Amino acid sequence: MPRIGVFICHCGENIGATVDAAAVAKAAGELPGVVHAVDYKYMCSDPGQNLIKEAIREKKLTGVVVGACSPRMHEPTFRRACAEAGLNAFLCEMANLREHCSWVHEKLPETTEKAIDLVRVMVEKVKRNRPLFPINVPITKTALVLGGGIAGIQAALDIANAGHPVVLVEREASIGGHMAQLSETFPTLDCSQCILTPRMVEVAQHPNIRLYTYSELESLEGFIGNFKAVIRKKARGIDEATCTGCGACIQKCPTKKIPSEFNAHLGHRTAIYVPFPQAVPNKPVIDRAHCTYYRTGKCKLCERVCPTKALRYDQEDLLVEVAVGAVVVATGYEVKGTDFFPEYGYGRYKDVITGLQFERLASASGPTLGAIRRPSDGQVPETVVFIACAGSRDPAKGLHYCSKICCMYTAKHAMLYKHKVHHGRPYVFYMDIRAGGKMYEEFVRRAIEEDQVSYIRGRVSRIYEKNGKLIVKGVDTLLNSRPVEIAADLVVLATAMVPQPDAEALAQKMKISYDGDRFLNEAHPKLRPVEMNTAGIFVAGACQAPKDIPETVAQASGAASKVIGLFSKDELSREPVVAVVNRTAPPLFSTCVGCFLCETACPYQAIEREEIKDRNGNVLKTVARVNQGVCQGCGTCVALCRSKSIDLQGFTNEQVFAELVAL
Amino acid sequence: MEFAVSAFEPKLVAFVCNWCTYAGADLTGTSRIKYAPNVRLIRLPCTGRIDFMLLLQAFGKGADGVIVSGCHPGDCHYTAGNFHARRRWTLFRRLLDFVGVDLRRVHFAWVSAAEGAKWAELVNDVKTKIQALGPYDAFPKRLDGRPQPAEVA
């Protein structure tokens, strides 16, 4: 006979305010098989958990239903409590009375009725639960870090310093990411390269880090502790071992007018190039789309000048397979281009630039060597207009979110401009100034008060060219919405931060979830901010949401510590939610008829063939068997099985049908 | 029996996957978006796990409408479970039709873990549609030996 205990949580007011928890407990107490039903203010608290533990011991419960929040939230908590009281953890189920009931419905009798239904369903399910035991799998103690920006660099260094091997994959020819492009960083005005490049070198020289630049993730298979990643090492056209990075090839390359990605298209690069002089590794790549040799079959100037004969024109992409136990995704962001804005000229005006382009203008390593000169004619701009929220917080543009860093970098840009062009007049059009952060508000005040940047609260409706000036038409909402017109020499748009163009494809490749803006979804916004829903995959940096450098570094260290925690064990116990093929007494052995439809359905190749033999070794029957280490428990095989011989532990046919009957 | 549309509260059963729609419905809760309390969720690891006998059972046990929802194509936590579910559904709808279940009573949807608002909209939308269709009673009538509504007409 089942002896089920039901525990209804008020969750403070969260459930209690809309659901009559006492009534739910009372109704549950009358269900067949339920021997104990109580309600309590906070079931997840220590006294709440003790209620469960005591009841298990005293009433000799064979199953527990906790009516509280989502099982995605506290199932592990309550299962652990049950295990501590000696009840198998998998004999505990949760009815979701908060996310699926009290939070989404009004205070009506129907809501309490629904709560009772949800509890009844789970009581019927738990009666049919079987004790399950975690499956132990070994852990490959190597981490894969995707993205070599500051997030990836930080995560890789932290994990490597803890003594674990790291494979760091960067798509571009050098690590460094966007941070390498920045001039100075708010709120301290540190030189970005000065704080970043030593870390880049540390990565390259670290004995525990294997660095793959100019490489991308081709595929990822497996599960926590046991992933198999394939990395596509794109053909550089040079032999990295032989090349010394002397740069003779770059100097002699005849194709010199290619817009430089590193300089945000404000400067030029050659067809054989390193993205920037401080690149790590300092080994060039050949841009085959622009190289004269690849286009016409003639040139090979670089080969002639190379002192070490390192050029390999026929080099092909290389696929490298690595076994890893955890993955940190740190693929970062890009900024929207100026062509995104019809009202600002669709990118037609050369002197309307993005914030990232301004960074390059202000950077000592940039195309103007740090002098603020406008792109069209190289003149020093006398009047510069900065427009915050260009694209961000604008549902009409499809980007409803705040890009978070723009308020700060716009203040910084105006400040840097003023420091370099003393007589210049900077104007900032803004909606709100969001300067939450240590010393951030003070920084903005400094821009306004000390550097006399004119902040105008209002939006810009239009920019057009007139007599060599950019006429910026806006409004000052603090001055009775008076129209404002400024004749500017340079306009800087704080364009929105968006995920990498292929963020969605990468997420699909890795089976991790992402939101409507293509940012990656963390497992829980507050309690699991660096984990993905897919176990063993972690996230850091702006690929999850817009964030600044300190936050990115903090998140990267957080992700790294999660990886290190995972690697602190030799074996990992995994939820035993796996499929099993039944076994019966001879002469049947199993109801499986060996059609192996399950084999075709399984995405993980977890179905094996088992031959049942008599004592003379004659094969009597071939049946399916599930490799429990490989099975991930999706249950697709169960729905497909013709003879109903395969079932999913934790979600058996018996359990699910019982749930339906109880509705 | 005649039901006034406003008085009829349909019983909806939703079969959802753990990774996308269940999490999406959790987000609806976290975002405090209100929707009709008529729906009961059955949580499964993946839409690929949904045996269509479950749908028949749901109707047999008094459901007026069924929602099946999982990850968007390409986003399945288990690579391809939602594709299996979709393919199976295209075959199964003919069987449902044959058995006499109005196909408008079964709703397929993709609701991701980030689409809390979409889940609320879906439930409200399905509720309104099922209200318009009235209670599902064709199945019990057949078992009772009574004629189906279609045959009466």
What do these coordinates show?
The complex is a heterodimer of chains A (663) and B (153). With 663 residues, chain A is an alpha/beta fold. Chain A folds into 5 domains: 131 residues, Rossmann fold, CATH 3.40.50; 180 residues, 3-Layer(bba) Sandwich (FAD/NAD(P)-binding domain), CATH 3.50.50.60; 58 residues, no CATH class; 164 residues, FAD/NAD(P)-binding domain; 84 residues, Alpha-Beta Plaits (2-Layer Sandwich). Chain A contains 18 helices and 36 strands. A 5-stranded parallel β-sheet of chain A has the order 10-7-6-18-31, covered by helices on one side. A 5-stranded parallel β-sheet of chain A has the order 20-27-21-22-23. The longest helix of chain A is centred in the first third of the chain and has 19 residues. With 153 residues, chain B is an alpha/beta fold. Chain B has one domain: Rossmann fold, CATH 3.40.50. Helices cover 44% and strands 15% of the residues of chain B. Chain B is built from 6 helices and 4 strands. Chain B has a 4-stranded parallel β-sheet with strand order 2-1-3-4, sandwiched between helices. The chains are: A alpha/beta (663), B alpha/beta (153). The interface between A and B is large, with 52 and 53 residues.
